[in-house]
């Protein structure tokens, strides 16, 4: 499926699904600083361990049904790079009651769309369908959670499809894996964080049907998954259907998690990766993030707003408007998602293309000046923090309303899987409000330093044997 | 006795196994009754100078999207002016009489938004999405950008340099190369057929030429401001009347229709050592205002335009030649449209993929689809229609498209019915009438050592194939 496409980290400014207590009716003046960020969250677990999060609203007569499995490409088998993603494709190839192609046509002929994606710490499957088809797709998702019925032909076919996916997105594209696929491999040391998660073509070819069954048995169990429904539906009715279709799936213990921690980086790292298809050089910088859910983590979210997000950001104004190095500088926390939907080591990164006449070092020098200013007492004031908070609040609204409710579903499932607490979606704004200027400076001084970063350059040149 | 017992047990087992096999699979539950879908209802206000304000109350998140669409763009450029609209779009972000570039960006950021200006083929778009409480204020800023921009010469060299860098990246992407060549062959000298502007041409544009283009082409009469999301209607209306009433009326919009033509049947572009061939195979078809257009759209979704379509099922889900094949009807050309199939296929399978595409085109022209297959596609399109009208941006896109093609106010209300009215025979009819493979153009970007012999073979095999069918 259309997973891991380049630049999926861009926020899609799409549908509107946030339920906000103080702005339900039209006509009256909505908005205001004190708007409560409130989403209905009904959270419970089935006896077999399946986590369920329901969040109704009546914006549009549609529902999003999504299942998140707690298995990302990070922890795929060591001799099978790209396998978590290849496996994702296999989930569309047939189950007990739906043959090959039937899942997809069932969604389409009922007026819906579907997809799946493989990320650092989860693999998800979702359908956006008319409300009255909710029961149909709870049944269909339960059917493939029970087991797969696939053949060697199906596997061979999808190995072909996935290899073509890698070719169209990476191998036949200028800047194909730069920096989203490349940088984690340079910035990280632990194999789990530092391997090619799209997969080497040989590893993809080596996958067997036994691998597929083994992977399913290890990770695709109810107790290793979160099911969520967001949209226009009746909660009690949905609970009955969920019990009916998922309740009898036997619970199994999932595979224990390996150690995915990263050693602390102590020296700046620098790499160059030539790209024979690229017409201009490019540069990316990545800094290791503070641990998830710490005060510094929220501070990094706001530093990202101040430094990188929007045309008012400091890096945009210096690198683009003042120096004219590039037309834009893009980046953020987690290029394959956002700062909330991962569960392990992560980098904050940005990248730009530039001209041959400009050296990477001259760009890095300007970056260092901008960051040094932030770290100083005078360089950061209350107005910076206020604007960052407004941008952040606006961005959270976009996030929860993204893609017909899928954005909200993504947060609910991530928080259920990683924190056993989907209510966190309603506490984010409060967490950001706790950040003050002192914490921002402390975080910038501790994390935005050369010893914590990796520099990756790419130049328009043929690959050398060593690289 | 023993023997007998064992025998019967075996019989029993095999009967049971047989029964299991013969038993139908569990069928998906049907679901309930469809809920009502409220098609967005726009409120339109026209100012004395001809500018239109279109407001749609939508959603519950306290944000509002404001998009000023000025119907002037690259289509209005003379050949030597090519690139001016794009530079103008970038310059418009660089400040107004009251705000320099940086303070303009900061003003939008304080409202939780960002200014986005795009100088495109038909329109210059000036827009933002802000927290609802700032809607009227954002209108004031958009009005400044549209009416009193600085267009500072000091930024021009930097923006030209950016533009040239971006174009050099575009030229290195196989999909852009394929699209460009495809448009060039079909649209020839019309602005739609132009190649990307050269560095020399971009360098030749002066600030005076850009200012002159702005003064001549940008005005109220050819502009619409869309406001979609949560907002106070009275405040928005007052802000628009206050900020835009004095805007110069300017010219009416002026789009020159293109005459599509083709004098080449196959073109190969070399991309040495490429692991894939990038394909574009298509033909001009009637535009969205034509009575056959809806049937063409349904035919397209059935043939290659949806995930469960025939071509995708064939070359992806059966053969594994490609990852993201898709057929499309371009509906973003004035009074003109093109149907085409696009795919990036493994280079060794270029000829085989083309053969399968030809086979599917031939099949849809030879026999009407079953009612069941067609109903599935119609349901899909009806569902997608709901989704298209379930985002702020989607609503603006739909309304702008209706305006662009002159489809009439009733279009949205009739849309679903017109999809369901298409019969299986009509699908075959429009495919036969409009998708003549003899007149189609094929563009292939890939390693020519590999693609050339395969395309030669395809051309021969294709002809043989057609004879068999005839």
Summarize the structure.
The complex is a heterodimer of chains A (467) and B (470). Chain A has helices at residues 83-90, 102-109, 134-146, 152-171, 183-187, 191-194, 201-206, 209-219, 235-246, 295-307, 314-322, 360-375, 382-401, 406-419, 428-433, 437-447, and strands at residues 42-45, 51-56, 62-69, 113-118, 123-130, 225-231, 269-272, 282-288, 330-333, 347-353, 453-458.
Describe it for me?
The complex is a heterodimer of chains A (467) and B (470). Chain A has 467 residues and is an alpha+beta fold. Chain A has two domains: 36-246, 2-Layer Sandwich (Cytochrome Bc1 Complex, Chain A, domain 1); 269-458, Cytochrome Bc1 Complex, Chain A, domain 1. Chain A is 38% helix and 14% strand. Chain A has a six-stranded mixed beta sheet, with helices on both faces. In chain A, strands 7-11-8-10-9 form a five-stranded mixed beta sheet. In chain A, a hairpin with a 4-residue loop joins β4 and β5. The longest helix of chain A is centred in the middle third of the chain and has 20 residues, at 152-171. The two termini of chain A are 31 Å apart. Chain B has 470 residues and is of the alpha+beta class. Chain B has two domains: 43-244, Cytochrome Bc1 Complex, Chain A, domain 1; 266-469, Cytochrome Bc1 Complex, Chain A, domain 1. Helices cover 48% and strands 16% of the residues of chain B. Chain B has 17 helices and eleven strands. Chain B has helices spanning 2-22, 84-92, 101-109, 135-147, 156-171, 174-187, 199-204, 207-217, 233-244, 293-305, 310-318, 350-366, 371-388, 392-405, 411-420, 424-434, 448-469; strands at 43-46, 52-57, 63-70, 116-119, 124-131, 223-229, 266-270, 276-285, 326-333, 336-346, 441-446. Chain B has a six-stranded mixed beta sheet with strand order 1-2-6-3-5-4, sandwiched between helices. A five-stranded mixed beta sheet of chain B has the order 7-11-8-10-9, sandwiched between helices. The longest helix of chain B has 22 residues, at 448-469. Chain B is globular, with a radius of gyration of 27 Å. The termini of chain B are far apart. Mean pLDDT of chain B is 92; it is low at 1-22 and 466-470. The chains are: A alpha+beta (467), B alpha+beta (470). Chains A and B meet through α2, β5, α3, α4 and α11 of A and α3, β5, α5, α11 and β10 of B.
């Amino acid at each position: 499926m259309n997973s891991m496409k380049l630049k999926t980290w861009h926020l899609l400014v799409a549908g509107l699904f946030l339920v906000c207590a103080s702005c339900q009716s039209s006509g009256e003046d909505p908005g205001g600083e004190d708007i409560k960020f409130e989403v209905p969250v009904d959270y419970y677990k089935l006896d077999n361990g399946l986590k369920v999060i329901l969040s109704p609203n009546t914006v549009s007569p549609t529902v999003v049904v999504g299942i998140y499995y707690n298995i990302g490409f990070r922890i795929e088998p060591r001799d099978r790079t790209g396998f978590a993603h290849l496996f994702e494709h296999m989930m569309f190839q047939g189950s007990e009651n739906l043959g090959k192609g039937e899942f997809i046509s069932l969604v389409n002929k009922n007026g819906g769309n579907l997809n799946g994606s493989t990320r650092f710490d989860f693999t998800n499957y979702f359908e956006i369908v008319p409300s009255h088809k909710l029961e149909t797709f709870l049944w269909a998702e339960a059917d493939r959670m029970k087991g797969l019925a696939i053949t060697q032909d199906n596997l061979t076919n999808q190995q072909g499809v996935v290899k073509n996916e890698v070719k169209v997105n990476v191998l036949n594209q200028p800047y194909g894996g730069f920096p989203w696929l490349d940088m984690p491999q340079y910035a990280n040391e632990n194999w789990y964080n530092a391997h090619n998660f799209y997969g080497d073509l040989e590893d993809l070819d080596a996958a067997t049907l036994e691998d597929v069954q083994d992977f399913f048995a290890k990770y695709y169990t109810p107790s290793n998954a979160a099911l969520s429904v967001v949209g226009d539906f009746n909660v009690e009715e949905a609970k009955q259907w969920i019990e009916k279709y998922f309740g009898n799936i036997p619970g199994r213990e999932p595979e224990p998690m390996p150690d995915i921690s990263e050693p602390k980086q102590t020296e700046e790292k620098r790499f160059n990766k030539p790209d024979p298809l690229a017409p201009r050089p490019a540069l990316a910088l990545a800094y290791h993030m503070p641990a998830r859910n710490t005060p510094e983590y929220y501070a990094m979210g706001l530093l990202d707003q101040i430094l990188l997000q929007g045309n008012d950001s400091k890096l945009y104004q210096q690198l683009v408007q003042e120096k004219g190095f590039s037309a834009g500088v893009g980046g953020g926390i987690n290029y394959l998602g956002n700062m909330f939907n991962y569960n392990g080591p992560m980098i904050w990164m940005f990248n730009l293309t530039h001209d041959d006449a400009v050296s990477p070092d001259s760009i890095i020098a300007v970056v260092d000046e901008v960051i040094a200013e932030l770290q100083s007492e005078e360089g950061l004031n209350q107005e910076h923090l206020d604007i960052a908070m407004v941008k952040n609040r606006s961005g959270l609204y976009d996030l929860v309303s993204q893609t017909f409710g899928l954005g909200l579903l993504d947060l609910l499932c991530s928080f259920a899987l990683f924190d056993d607490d989907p209510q966190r979606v309603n506490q984010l704004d409060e967490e950001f409000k706790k950040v003050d200027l002192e914490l921002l400076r402390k975080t910038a001084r501790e994390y935005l330093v050369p010893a914590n970063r990796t520099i990756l350059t790419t130049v328009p040149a043929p690959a050398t044997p060593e690289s | 006795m023993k023997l007998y017992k064992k025998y019967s047990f075996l019989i029993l087992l095999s009967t049971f196994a047989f029964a299991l096999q013969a038993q139908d699979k569990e069928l998906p539950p049907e679901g309930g009754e469809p809920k009502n879908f409220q098609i967005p209802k726009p409120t339109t206000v026209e100012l004395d100078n001809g500018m239109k304000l279109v407001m749609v109350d939508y959603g519950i998140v306290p944000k509002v999207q404001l998009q000023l669409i000025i119907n002037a763009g690259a289509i209005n450029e003379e050949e030597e002016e090519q690139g001016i609209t794009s530079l103008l779009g970038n310059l418009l972000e660089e400040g107004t009489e009251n705000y320099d570039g940086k303070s303009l960006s900061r003003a939008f950021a304080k409202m939780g938004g960002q200014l986005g200006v795009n100088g495109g083929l038909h329109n210059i778009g000036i827009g933002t999405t802000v927290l609802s409480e700032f809607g009227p204020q954002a209108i004031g800023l958009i009005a400044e950008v549209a009416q009193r921009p600085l267009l500072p010469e000091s930024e021009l060299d930097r923006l030209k340099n950016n533009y040239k860098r971006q174009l050099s990246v575009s030229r290195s992407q196989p999909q852009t190369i394929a699209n460009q060549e495809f448009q060039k062959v079909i649209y020839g000298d019309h602005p739609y057929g132009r190649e990307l502007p050269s560095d020399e041409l971009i360098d030749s544009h002066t600030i005076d030429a850009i200012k002159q283009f702005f003064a001549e082409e940008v005005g109220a009469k050819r502009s619409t401001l869309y406001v979609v999301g949560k907002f106070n209607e009275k405040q928005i209306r007052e802000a628009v009347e206050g900020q835009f009433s004095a805007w110069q009326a300017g010219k009416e919009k002026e789009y020159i229709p293109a005459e599509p033509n083709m004098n080449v049947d196959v073109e190969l572009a070399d991309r040495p050592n490429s692991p894939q061939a990038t394909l574009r195979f298509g033909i001009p078809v009637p535009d969205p205002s034509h009575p056959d257009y809806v049937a063409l759209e349904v035919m397209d979704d059935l043939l290659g335009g949806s995930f469960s379509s025939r071509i995708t099922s064939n070359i992806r889900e059966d053969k594994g030649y490609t990852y993201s094949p898709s057929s499309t009807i371009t509906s973003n050309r004035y009074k003109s449209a093109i149907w085409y199939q696009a795919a990036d296929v493994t280079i060794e399978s270029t000829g085989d993929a083309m053969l399968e595409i030809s086979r599917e085109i031939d099949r849809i022209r030879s026999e009407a689809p079953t009612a069941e297959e067609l109903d599935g596609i119609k349901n899909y399109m009806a569902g997608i229609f709901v989704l298209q009208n379930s985002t702020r941006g989607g609503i603006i896109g739909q309304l702008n498209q209706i305006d662009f093609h002159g489809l009439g106010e009733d279009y949205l209300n009739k849309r679903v019915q017109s999809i369901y009215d298409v019969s299986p025979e009509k699908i075959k009819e429009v495919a036969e009438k409009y998708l003549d493979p003899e007149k189609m153009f094929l563009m292939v970007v890939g390693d020519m050592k590999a693609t050339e012999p395969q395309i030669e073979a395809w051309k021969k095999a294709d002809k043989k194939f057609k004879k068999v069918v005839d």
